[in-house]
Amino acid sequence: FAQFSLELHPDKTRLIEFGRYAIERRQERGEGKPETFQFLGFTHICATTQAGRFKLKRVTSKKRMRAKLRQLNIELRRRMHLPIPEQGVWLGAVVRGHLAYFAVPDNGEAIASFRREVTRLWFLALRRRSQRHSLTWQRMARIVERWLPPVRILHPWPEQRFAAITQGKSPVR
């Protein structure tokens, strides 16, 4: 890298202890939990199952979520005076896209939080349309139920995803 005058950023390039034995090894040395890292919009965490086995936990990066909600708020303000069905179609697509990427196992709390914040921002934008707002949370709940998809995990656990069994002829040997 030196010959090209390139440098690696110390926060973005470092070795960390991570994986199946990281928790045990750090406990033996008297150190705390293994470090986390952020990659592709997720914070990757060393965790354990209820049975005590290692699992990789992926949670939406807080920095990424805040940035998306900030963008969304600006766009909601721009679209504030459009009819509610137009806003609903657009926001439904935004939430569906978020779920399509981030609805992985162990991330249910983060995607529920995203939908809840989208609802709150939409509610505030709709109430700003008039000085005499008549929008209550009960009415907003009906609007949200109509236009935003429900939160649910869409992606299977890795062992289920890779355990594909195909139908048909067996391969020629």
How would you describe this structure to a colleague?
There is one protein chain. With 173 residues, the protein is mainly alpha-helical. Helix content is 46%, strand content 10%. It has 6 helices and 3 strands; from the N terminus they run H-E-E-E-H-H-H-H-H. It has helices spanning 22-28, 62-78, 84-102, 108-127, 137-147, 158-162, and strands at 37-39, 42-48, 54-60. It has a 3-stranded antiparallel β-sheet. Helix 2 packs parallel to helix 4 and helix 3 (84-102) crosses helix 5. The radius of gyration is 22 Å and the shape is elongated. The chain starts with 21 loop residues before the first helix and ends in an 11-residue tail after the last helix. The relative contact order is 0.10. The model has no long low-confidence stretch (mean pLDDT 86).
At a glance:
The chain is mainly α and 173 residues long.
Mean pLDDT: 86
Which runs of at least 5 residues are low in confidence (pLDDT < 50)? none
Tell me the strand order in the biggest sheet. Answer: 1-2-3
Q: Which range does the strand content fall in?
A: 5-15%
Query: What structural class should be given to the helix and strand makeup?
Result: mainly alpha
- Specify the helix fraction band: 40-55%
Give the biggest sheet. 3 strands, antiparallel
Rg, Cα atoms, Å: 22 Å
* Cα-to-Cα separation, first versus last residue: 48 Å
Shape: elongated
